[in-house]
Design a protein that fits this description.
The complex is a heterodimer of chains A (about 375) and B (about 290).
Chain A: E1 4-11, E2 20-27, E3 32-36, H1 43-51, E4 58-63, E5 66-67, E6 78-81, H2 93-103, H3 108-122, H4 137-149, E7 155-159, H5 167-184, E8 187-191, H6 195-201, E9 204-209, E10 212-217, H7 219-224, H8 229-234, E11 241-248, E12 251-254, E13 257-260, H9 263-268, E14 272-277, E15 282-283, E16 289-300, E17 304-311, E18 314-321, E19 331-336, E20 342-344, E21 365-367
Parallel strand pairs in A: 3-8, 3-9, 6-7, 7-8
Antiparallel strand pairs in A: 1-2, 1-4, 4-5, 9-10, 11-12, 11-14, 12-13, 13-21, 14-20, 15-19, 16-17, 16-19, 17-18
Helix pairs in contact in A: 2-3, 2-4, 3-4
Chain B: H1 2-32, H2 48-53, H3 65-72, H4 76-107, H5 113-123, H6 132-142, H7 149-174, H8 177-185, H9 190-201, H10 203-219, H11 222-227, H12 236-241, H13 251-286
Helix pairs in contact in B: 1-13, 3-13, 4-7, 4-10, 5-7, 7-10, 7-13, 8-9, 10-13
Classes of the chains: A alpha+beta (about 375), B mainly alpha (about 290).
The structure holds adenosine-5'-triphosphate and magnesium ion.
């Protein structure tokens, strides 16, 4: 049990620009923190610094109260699950799980007892005498998990542990990891590319880009109140539509629509801005405002579908029920609630507290 | 089609005969019981076919006399023991040094690493004969290790080292670092990781380097002949040399000794075969 605190953490490889120029992140005791971000943004580097596999160039890294910048990996009482599983190929499953305990000079009887208990919890008992080469990918991942669990560490680190598994197994293992965290409550940091994993596993999610933290928050917070266009487009699938808009007095004009803004909202907005609208907030019925666009393509996903709309050079995706999907090549009129609009400045930063009040009927709408 | 197959078979047979002929000749000499190079004495005025008989690698009669003589009248057993001890010790010392050096060069970054690797390669560019005099001066005159096992063991392990280090480093480089990092996180010391993770995983490459070290020591002649001037301390190649000199031509002993000296090598190859295949190919891809 331990919290993790990163204060102004810097990672510099050689002479090049810092990979991580200064990261502040507080992970609470018992929390499941997910790190997401595009490839190369420094997720693994951050995780490996917490693990002690990578040195910290500058800043303070604490686990619990202890400053661990210079503490060896083996003395941080952290367990890590690698993407490649990293099992010891020449040892049986039992020996793999016992290795860490043996290194710590645990008495044999205790080793046996702990390994067997963990194996039982993970359903690994029938495999204990096999070598990793004789296991399937899912079983190997389970052994890697068991090896991490058996030592009862203060912190779990996961670096894309499920990305080598097929979809079904991934869902299954995801549930397993969630269950383990619920029962053990060990502080965990989990790196993934997969948004669904992030949303379902994370107590909180930290989104990184180019070595910087874009936003930290619960999945719901990130979805409903993104700080910037990067987070807005990272969370949600398909990503939020973002297009440019111009404010002229209290009127907001975009390629797809023109609406009247409440004066308070309008006052807070610059004249040039970016407007965000989630694909799932569009429909053909109901709410007040309308937008127009030419249907370029539709994709059916089963009970729902995606419509790709274009107005001039600007594109937009709408997620609609199957029966609402328009015909390709036609001009479609879709409806949305102006309260669902997000406003960002031209640098992509959210303009705080400027979502339109949910008083749809008060708004006069006009097609563009 | 069948003719082609026949031709192909014939071609292979001829090739095998060409390769095996000298070997069979040595084996026959060894079992001939005599010391003469000629296996069959061809009488004056023999017919063409009788003369042809002299070309076949078959002795007139089979006998173990050469082997008996070698082991009883000659100090061959003693030489074999010298060779075995020197080669085995060279293998152990060489492999231990090479493993630890290669592991450090593969896994750790330290000043002088690149240069050190390059230096190891450069040392391979000089022909061994160039080193004879300096080695003689160092080992025999300075260290007083002439006529000792230790002198040869030291020289052999060191000369085999550059190849072994490069071979093993290539293999360590190909092993995933994750595995060792996982062990590191479990609290294993670098030494424990080296012994309990890296070495067991590097078995194929170690087999290759061990064999290489063993053969280096087992087959070497020039240094051994310079360092050892007591007959009791000869290694097998040096001892064999004295069967065939200006003063004697005991080809039978020579051949019997050759057969005996190849046996350990053959046995080693067979024993390590499983590792050798994977080891050589791994080295081939990576090293
Ligand atoms: N040893 C190294 N030397 C120099 N640069 C490195 C080193 N390791 C990583 N980097 C750089 O640091 C950046 C972050 O790498 P990192 O592995 O943390 O990315 P990531 O977010 O985990 O990406 P992915 O999702 O692809 O795994 C990358 O641009 C990478 O090129
Ligand atoms: Mg990564």
């Amino acid at each position: 049990m331990a919290s993790i605190s990163l204060k102004k953490i810097v990672k510099q490889y050689g002479q090049q620009a810092a990979t991580i120029p200064g990261l502040d992140l507080e992970i609470r005791d018992g929390e499941f923190m997910v790190l997401v971000g595009p490839s190369g943004c420094g997720k693994s580097t951050t995780l490996r610094m917490i693990a002690g596999l990578e040195s910290v160039s500058d800043g303070e890294l604490r686990i619990g109260e202890r400053l661990v910048n210079d503490v060896a990996a083996g003395e941080r009482n952290i367990a890590m699950v690698f993407q490649s599983y990293a099992l010891y190929p020449h040892m049986t499953v039992f020996e793999n799980m016992a290795f860490g305990l043996r290194v710590r000079k645990t008495p044999d009887a205790k080793v046996r007892e702990q390994v067997e208990a963990t194996a039982r919890a993970l359903g690994l008992e029938p495999l204990l005498q096999r070598k990793p080469g004789e296991l399937s990918g899912g079983q190997r991942q389970r052994v890697a998990l068991g090896r991490a669990l058996v030592r009862n560490p203060d912190v779990f680190l996961f670096d894309e542990p499920l990305s080598n598994l097929d979809a079904e197994l991934r869902t299954q293992m995801r549930a397993e990891i969630a269950r383990l965290h619920r029962t053990q409550g060990t502080t965990s940091v989990y790196v993934t590319h997969d948004q669904v994993e992030a949303m379902t596993l994370g107590d909180r999610i930290a989104i990184m880009n180019g070595g910087r933290l874009m936003q930290v928050g619960t999945p719901a917070e990130l979805y409903s109140a993104p700080d910037n266009t990067f987070v807005a487009q990272f969370m949600g699938s398909p990503p939020m539509n973002i297009f440019s808009g111009q404010r002229d007095g209290t009127r907001l004009r975009t390629a797809f629509f023109e609406i009247e803004l409440p004066t308070a909202t309008a006052a807070a907005l610059p004249t040039e801005l970016q407007v965000g609208l989630r694909p799932e907030c569009l429909s053909t019925t109901g709410t007040a405002a309308t937008l127009n666009g030419r249907v370029e393509m539709i994709e059916c996903l089963g009970h729902e579908g995606l419509a790709y709309l274009a107005a001039g050079d600007t594109q937009l995706r709408a997620k609609l029920a199957m029966e609402q999907l328009p015909q390709t090549g036609t001009d479609a009129v879709l409806r949305f609630n102006p309260a669902d609009l997000y406003f960002f400045d031209t640098n992509g930063e959210r303009i705080a507290a400027t979502s339109v009040e949910p008083a749809g009927t008060a708004l006069e709408t006009a097609g563009a | 089609m069948t003719i082609l197959n026949w031709l192909r078979g014939l071609f292979i047979l001829v090739m095998v005969a060409i390769v095996l002929y000298p070997v069979l000749w040595v084996v026959s000499l060894a079992f001939s019981g005599g010391q003469s190079l000629a296996l069959v004495s061809v009488p004056e005025g023999a017919s063409f076919f009788e003369a042809l008989r002299a070309l076949l690698p078959l002795p007139q009669q089979w006998s173990l006399a050469n082997f008996e003589g070698l082991l009883t009248e000659q100090p061959f057993g003693r030489w074999l023991l010298n060779s075995l001890i020197i080669a085995a010790a060279t293998t152990i010392v060489g492999v231990l040094l090479a493993c630890s050096a290669a592991y450090a060069l593969s896994r750790f970054r330290f000043p002088g690493r690149e240069r050190g690797l390059m230096l190891l390669l450069v040392s391979q560019m000089f022909p061994a004969t160039l080193m004879l005099i300096p080695l003689y001066v160092i080992i025999v005159e300075w260290l007083q290790l002439g006529n000792t096992w230790l002198g040869l063991i030291a020289v052999y392990s060191i000369t085999a080292l550059p190849f072994c280090v490069w071979m093993l480093k290539g293999y360590f480089d190909s092993l995933p670092v994750d595995i060792e990092e996982a062990a590191l996180m479990e609290g294993a010391s670098p030494v424990a990781i080296f012994w309990r993770i890296a070495l067991p995983l590097a078995k194929p490459a170690i087999a290759v380097t061990a064999l290489f070290s063993f053969l280096t020591a087992w087959n070497e002649f020039i240094l051994a002949s310079i360092f050892m001037d007591e007959e009791a301390l000869y290694t097998v190649p040096v001892g064999l040399r004295f069967f065939v000199s200006d003063f004697s031509a005991q080809w039978g002993y020579f051949a019997a000794g050759s057969v005996l000296v190849s046996l350990p090598v053959v046995i080693l190859f067979l024993g390590l075969q499983r590792f050798l295949v994977s080891g050589l190919s791994a080295g081939a891809v990576k090293g």
